[in-house]
Amino acid sequence: MKSLTLAEGVRAxxxxxxSRVAITIDExxxxxxxxxxxxxxxxAGALEDLRLASGERVAVCLPxxxxxMEIACGFSAVEVVSAMVPxxxxxxxxxxxxxDCEPRVMLCHASNEAQARAGASHVVERFLVIGRAGPxxxxxxxxxxxxxxxxxxxxxxxxxxxxxxxxxxxxxGILLSHRxxxxxxxxxxxxYRALGPQTRMLVSTPVFHGAGFLNLLAPCWFGGExxxxxxxxxxxxxxxxxxxxxxxxxxxPSHFAAFFALSAAERRRWDLSxxxxxxxxxxxxxxxxxxxxxxxFGADVLHERYGSTEASIVSNLRPADxxxxxxxxxxxxxxxxxxxxxxxxxxxxxxxxxxxWSRSPLMFSGYWRRPEAQAKAVRGGWVSAGDLARRDDEGYxxxxxxxxxxxxxxxxxxxxxEIEEVLLRHPAVQEAAVIGLPHEYWGEAITGFVHLRAGxxxxxxxxxxxxxxxLAKWKVPKRIYLRPPLPRNSMGKVLRRLVRDEAKKTI
Length: 507
Prior knowledge:
The structure is a single chain. The protein is an alpha/beta fold. The protein has 16 helices and 26 strands. It has a 9-stranded mixed β-sheet, sandwiched between helices. A 7-stranded mixed β-sheet has the order 6-5-3-4-7-8-18, sandwiched between helices. Strands 16, 17, 19, 20 and 21 form a 5-stranded antiparallel β-sheet that branches. Strand 1 and strand 2 form a beta hairpin. Helix 1 packs parallel to helix 8, helix 4 packs across helix 5 and helix 7 crosses helix 8. The protein is globular and about 70 Å long. The model has no long low-confidence stretch (mean pLDDT 92).
């Protein structure tokens, strides 16, 4: 019986569509036949030249570029594990990851070679550099590789270690198997009804992230075309949708913010009518933004998914429910079970807020060398990312907030996301973050930070009065500060931890 592995799936697609373009980025492209050949060369080079053994790690520190799929498939086809290193990471951050996973080989790009070497040279024995000729050139290495006979790989084998963002401390290595990624692609194909040979997928987020890699993998698994965005600008993103007649795009809240920052007349410059499916994920989408998306793209296009690298995709809010279910992340994804549990792990009834747990064949295989973290996150086959949620009487899920971000003010539990949703409804507010700061009387004082839209104004008193019209008095922020754009990670998620750290130093 053939296993569900990344390389085998791409080979099957190539047998059906050998001359079809599989991946495009900028002016580069690769057909399925070429992609399969290059996957074989990577596997051969891993065994014959690099002498890597089953279970060894290679560090992959790459921006979005054409070789991503051949590297992930080629190494994993011989059971070599790709450890994903953020390509924009500083040398100390790279050092932390490579000291954790101990790779002998690192793949990097000419654009980030200096920091990759600065952070990893004390661990890594060999660098392969994409985007330049000469010593350590990836292309030269690839051309020297010759096909070899490879033993079959079990689908439960680990193909990558994805590192968490480190928002709560040292990044954790998250182990992902072939089977989990491929079943996630199948589940997405069923849920979105937008994956197949006709698919032209826009890969708009960094591929080193779990979501970005899934968006690259899925069209290649089903014989479609992946169109990669090498660097973000809203104009470049819209150009790609129009010129490639993109059918499906995965976008994050910051993409939508940039889109709606354009005037209506500017947005009409692009023909976006080919889009039949837009999936938003990685960070909560404000209800006010959902309403704008539905107005701009129609009522049958937008999905909002919720998940984590550990759990994979947990739920999806379908287009028909976007306006019917406000601030909702939908129903469980295919093959996923969910429970909302209290502190005693008792399953809570509809309407009560608790920690969200899920289990499915899509979830991760554990943490790399972090048994204490695994014991906390996984119980009896169920996994939690530490998010608080509730379910309604129809079974729909509503994210309330991160468990670690909950504010206790005056003895009451306050969920920052609820207040941020209100602030984002103010016409002058572009971004909002709410945190709790130590306070002698309240325990924690609810504190808001707001970045205003260009050309618009509002002061603290006006924003607090706006909150008072929509929130109970005890939920209204004690102070609201105007500030520059909020700090975000590479997927556009606001980093409340950094907002909190800055506030403690300056307030």
